[in-house]
């Protein structure tokens, strides 16, 4: 297919996020002249639809990036570590969804609604933050800019799609097993996920926190360019397919009312306030699934601490938390003449 635009590659195209990257490129009418779909050798023979055409998946090799101008990666940290520099040397701008480059001081970590200018300092590779980090910083940035934030305590309730297609299949299979009186089979998670939850996402570290929890701490500080923010995170896996939820408690530098927070968030890009308690109006994963907004509700004063606020934040972890954020970074670069 030949349209006016860029030569784009999607690495990890047959995965959950890679599939969605292709879909989001089409939905947002990103200008693509040629789309190359890359994955491992076992995906050869598969095709994905794009603008009415079926595009065959090709095997990812070192020569895959000849002529490519934009490469969207969602194939895991090991693949990104090896192939992202190869793509960048070939002349592509890489936007990577893995954890491989996020904390590299030479690689910008970007959420377009929060720190767009950081993307302009790239040297060929730009990193997408963790999905849970993205929705939290989108919700908190307007508050941070208005009154400052000195401390964040966050508990996440994360959907199984964050682990990938096999985790979605495991949840569905376990639900059927339990409902039909069979023992649930575990392959992906350390515990049964159907009708259950557990505070274990990623390996545990020596400090007692999980890797996922420390991602939220370190990535938030990098995105906000503020090493002084105190952050404590607890990450929990729940039996939901799409949509991460977060209970966020913050201490601000200056006092701010819930009404003013609602006004700030109403005016913020990428945020939708749902906060009408009399009508059970608050965000839930089902209302976020399939959308690109970060939904915020239950905004209230925390009376237990000076300048304390509590809120509830929900977003589609595969869209805004991954695929859409990557495409938005590409759109940002294009609008600034950097693609």
Task: Describe the SSE topology.
Layout: E1 6-11, H1 16-27, E2 32-39, E3 47-50, E4 53-59, E5 70-73, H2 77-89, E6 93-96, E7 125-127, H3 131-147, E8 149-158, H4 165-179, H5 211-224, E9 230-237, E10 244-252, H6 258-266, E11 271-273, H7 285-288, E12 294-302, E13 308-315, H8 319-335
What would a concise description of this structure say?
This protein is an alpha/beta fold and 339 residues long. It is 30% helix and 24% strand. It has two domains: 6-129 and 322-335, NAD(P)-binding Rossmann-like Domain (Rossmann fold), CATH 3.40.50; 133-316, Dihydrodipicolinate Reductase, domain 2.
Question: Could you characterize what this model shows?
Answer:
- This protein is an alpha/beta fold and 339 residues long.
- It has two domains: 6-129 and 322-335, 3-Layer(aba) Sandwich (Rossmann fold); 133-316, 2-Layer Sandwich (Dihydrodipicolinate Reductase, domain 2), CATH 3.30.360.10.
- It has helices at 16-27, 77-89, 131-147, 165-179, 211-224, 258-266, 285-288, 319-335, and strands spanning 6-11, 32-39, 47-50, 53-59, 70-73, 93-96, 125-127, 149-158, 230-237, 244-252, 271-273, 294-302, 308-315.
- Strands 3-4-2-1-5-6-7 form a seven-stranded mixed beta sheet, with helices on both faces.
- The longest helix is centred in the middle third of the chain and has 17 residues, at 131-147.
């Amino acid at each position: 297919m030949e349209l006016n635009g860029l030569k784009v590659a999607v690495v990890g195209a047959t995965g959950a996020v890679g599939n969605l990257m292709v879909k989001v490129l089409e939905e947002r009418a990103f200008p693509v002249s040629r789309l190359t779909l890359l994955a491992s050798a076992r995906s050869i023979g598969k095709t994905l639809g794009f603008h009415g055409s079926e595009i065959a998946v090709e095997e990812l090799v070192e020569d895959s990036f000849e002529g490519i101008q934009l490469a969207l990666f969602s194939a895991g940290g090991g693949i990104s570590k090896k192939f992202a520099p190869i793509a960048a040397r070939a002349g592509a701008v890489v936007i990577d969804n893995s954890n491989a480059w996020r904390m590299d001081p030479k690689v910008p970590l970007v959420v377009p609604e929060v720190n767009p200018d950081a993307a302009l300092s790239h040297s060929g590779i730009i990193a997408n933050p963790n999905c849970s980090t993205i929705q939290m910083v989108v919700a908190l940035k307007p508050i941070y800019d208005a009154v400052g934030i000195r401390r964040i305590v966050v508990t996440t309730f994360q959907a199984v799609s964050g682990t990938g297609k096999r985790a979605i299949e495991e949840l569905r299979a376990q639900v059927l097993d339990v409902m039909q009186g069979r023992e649930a089979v575990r392959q992906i998670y350390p515990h049964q996920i159907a009708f259950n939850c557990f505070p274990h996402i990623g390996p545990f570290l020596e400090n007692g926190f999980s890797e996922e929890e420390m991602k939220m701490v370190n990535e938030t500080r990098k995105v906000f360019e503020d090493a002084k923010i105190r952050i404590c995170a607890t990450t929990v896996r729940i039996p939901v397919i799409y949509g991460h939820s977060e209970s966020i408690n913050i201490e601000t530098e200056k006092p701010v009312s819930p009404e003013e927070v609602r006004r700030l968030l109403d005016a913020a890009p990428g945020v939708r306030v749902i906060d009408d308690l009399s009508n059970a109006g608050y965000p839930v994963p089902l209302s976020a699934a399939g959308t690109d907004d970060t939904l915020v509700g239950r905004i209230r004063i925390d009376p237990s601490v000076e300048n304390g606020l509590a809120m509830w934040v929900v977003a589609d972890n595969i869209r805004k938390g991954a695929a859409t954020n990557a495409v938005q970074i590409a759109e940002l670069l294009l609008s600034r003449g950097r693609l």
